[in-house]
């Protein structure tokens, strides 16, 4: 099928899945896979093939960059030690154990190819996990660990994948050479990523100084950064994946100076949509290709394939549970970066971190990027089986880990706010106090009664914010009730304005352009009015 038609059908499938998810108990990733499987029976969609290199280039850089960009730096640093144990130690353990175990279970699979499979299935997917838990309370530390682990093990797993593919293609494997190559690929990738992001940020600042700070242009440049980092690193034969991750982490919290509020809001919305579409497309493509994947492994008995997939899933879970519990108790005993309870690791939290092991877009993208042939022109050994087992791992983790996860969270009854004081309320109180001081300073020279009346109204509003976030709980609750009532009144007034505006357009009193201009203003006012009560 031509690329344009396929792209449009993917977007339609994502939209269908996004609409249906509100009426089904299935998480969005699983539902998109189902939509893809159903769509594969349509004419022309049963034999969809994606070029591995194009797939890796198109999907991986923006997905990883977006995940790194929104990762809180401070919390990333605070959870760095447990995250590194998961993202590096567990990945290496997974590659080695899965490699030897699958080579023993499937003798036809060469050891280097089995290591490739281990590297493919080692990264977890925070996007798939968040999709199943976004409406449920989770302790902040667990969220940060799971997200940071997913980001870093994407990088370490993909570097391990690249080395394993090279070993499978050449038939040569040396632990010393692998260690040296890992350092070279990782170090070079990190340097290139930081350099590209710095150049991109300097370019955006220069354009702003030249009065070219258009929000669309600024957002477009941020989208180009991950692709630029990836391509530059690959051209220099270092890790493009780590370059993207490093660029995203370096960009996190370093907004370009001079950006307007419109530019920041535009970038957030565009990246939100881009991440949604790309991750959704990966799961739909997985569903579209499942039938072809099954036909590619027809040399194996169906029961054997089921056995291999279940053994692989069970092995991944045993390794993860053992690693999470062992590393946590060792850190507690050795006091190495331990910030948890003085009585030891909490079994509930360990269980939750252990079970949050959903595989997703990165695993599939990596599996599909396995080359069809090696350098000598011969087929890549057992490529179809590797891709099938990777796809089966995604489906099994979504079904066995992702679907029960909301139930598990409710059952464990962990308090989402127990990790730290509510710093958002503290920050809101502090900025309200700063605003009070600024308004009072500017108003000291005012003499006009209307201006003074407006100042009093503004000061009253900020005093109310302080009372809401720092005052007596009883008064704060009463004020929150008043704010909710005022919000309903504002929304009712805006709804009446919008209805009358559309009546004016329908009777040709105004034209479409006038309607769009005024309706955009009404939309902005409505969004401001719909801010939750606790934000004041």
TrEMBL record:
Bilayer-spanning residue ranges: 6-23, 54-71, 83-106, 182-200, 212-229, 235-252, 273-290, 305-325, 350-374, 386-409
UniProt keyword Iron, yes or no: no
GO molecular function list: potassium:proton antiporter activity; sodium:proton antiporter activity
Alphabetical keyword list: Antiport, Cell inner membrane, Cell membrane, Ion transport, Membrane, Sodium, Sodium transport, Transmembrane, Transmembrane helix, Transport
Pfam families (alphabetical): Na_H_Exchanger
Membrane topology term: Multi-pass membrane protein
Chain segments annotated as coiled-coil in the UniProt record: none
GO annotations of cellular component type: plasma membrane
InterPro entries, A to Z: Cation/H_exchanger_CPA1, Cation/H_exchanger_CPA1_bac, Cation/H_exchanger_TM
Residue ranges constituting the Cation/H+ exchanger transmembrane domain according to the UniProt record: 12-410
GO biological process entries: regulation of intracellular pH; sodium ion import across plasma membrane
Subcellular location as annotated: Cell inner membrane; Cell membrane
Family: Belongs to the monovalent cation:proton antiporter 1 (CPA1) transporter (TC 2.A.36) family.
Role of this protein: Na(+)/H(+) antiporter that extrudes sodium in exchange for external protons.
Name of the protein: Sodium, potassium, lithium and rubidium/H(+) antiporter
């Amino acid at each position: 099928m031509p690329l344009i038609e396929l792209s449009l059908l993917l977007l339609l499938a994502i939209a269908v899945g996004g609409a249906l998810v509100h009426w089904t108990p299935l998480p969005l990733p699983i539902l998109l896979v189902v939509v893809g499987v159903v769509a594969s029976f349509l004419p022309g969609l049963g034999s969809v093939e994606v070029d591995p290199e194009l797939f890796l280039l198109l999907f991986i850089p923006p997905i990883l960059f977006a995940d790194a960009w929104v990762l809180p730096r401070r919390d990333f640093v605070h959870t760095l030690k447990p995250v590194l144990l998961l993202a590096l130690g567990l990945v290496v353990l997974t590659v080695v154990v899965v490699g030897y175990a699958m080579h023993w279970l499937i003798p036809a699979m060469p050891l280097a190819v089995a290591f490739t499979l281990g590297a493919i299935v080692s990264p977890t997917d925070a996007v798939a996990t968040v999709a199943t838990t976004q409406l449920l309370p989770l302790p902040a530390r667990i969220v940060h660990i799971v997200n940071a682990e997913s980001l870093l093990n994407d990088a370490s797993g993909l570097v391990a994948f690249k080395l394993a593919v090279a070993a499978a293609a050449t038939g040569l494997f040396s632990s010393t050479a692998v260690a040296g190559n890992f350092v070279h690929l990782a170090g070079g990738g990190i340097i290139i990523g930081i350099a590209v992001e710095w150049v991109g940020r300097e370019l955006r600042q220069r354009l702003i100084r030249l009065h070219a700070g258009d929000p669309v242009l600024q957002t477009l440049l941020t989208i180009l950064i991950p692709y630029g980092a990836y391509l530059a690193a690959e051209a220099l034969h270092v890790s493009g994946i780590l370059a993207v991750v490093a660029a995203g982490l370096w960009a996190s919290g370093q907004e370009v100076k001079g950006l307007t509020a419109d530019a920041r809001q535009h970038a957030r919305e565009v990246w939100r949509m881009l991440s949604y579409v790309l991750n959704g497309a990966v799961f739909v493509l997985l569903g579209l290709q499942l039938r072809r994947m099954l036909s590619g492994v027809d040399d194996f008995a169906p029961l054997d394939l089921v056995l291999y997939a279940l053994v692989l899933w069970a092995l991944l879970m045993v390794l993860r549970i053992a690693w999470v519990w062992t590393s946590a108790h060792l850190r507690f005993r050795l006091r190495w970066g331990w910030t948890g309870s003085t009585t030891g690791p909490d079994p509930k939290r360990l269980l939750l971190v252990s079970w949050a092991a959903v595989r997703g877009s990165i695993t599939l993208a990596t599996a599909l990027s396995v080359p069809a042939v090696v350098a000598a022109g011969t087929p890549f050994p057992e490529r179809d089986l590797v891709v099938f087992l990777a796809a089966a791992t995604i489906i099994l983790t979504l079904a066995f880990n992702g679907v029960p996860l909301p139930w598990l969270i409710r059952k464990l009854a962990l308090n989402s706010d127990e990790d730290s004081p509510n710093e958002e309320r503290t920050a809101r109180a502090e900025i309200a106090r700063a605003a009070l001081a600024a308004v009072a300073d500017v108003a000291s020279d005012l003499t006009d009664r209307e201006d003074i009346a407006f100042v009093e109204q503004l000061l009253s509003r900020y005093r109310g914010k302080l009372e809401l976030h720092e005052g007596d709980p009883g008064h704060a609750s009463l004020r929150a009730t008043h704010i909710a009532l005022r919000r309903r009144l504002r929304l009712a007034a805006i709804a009446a304005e919008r209805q009358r505006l559309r009546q004016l357009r329908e009777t040709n009193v105004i034209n479409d352009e006038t309607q769009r201009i005024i309706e955009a203003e009404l939309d902005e006012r409505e969004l401001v009015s719909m801010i939750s009560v606790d934000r004041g």
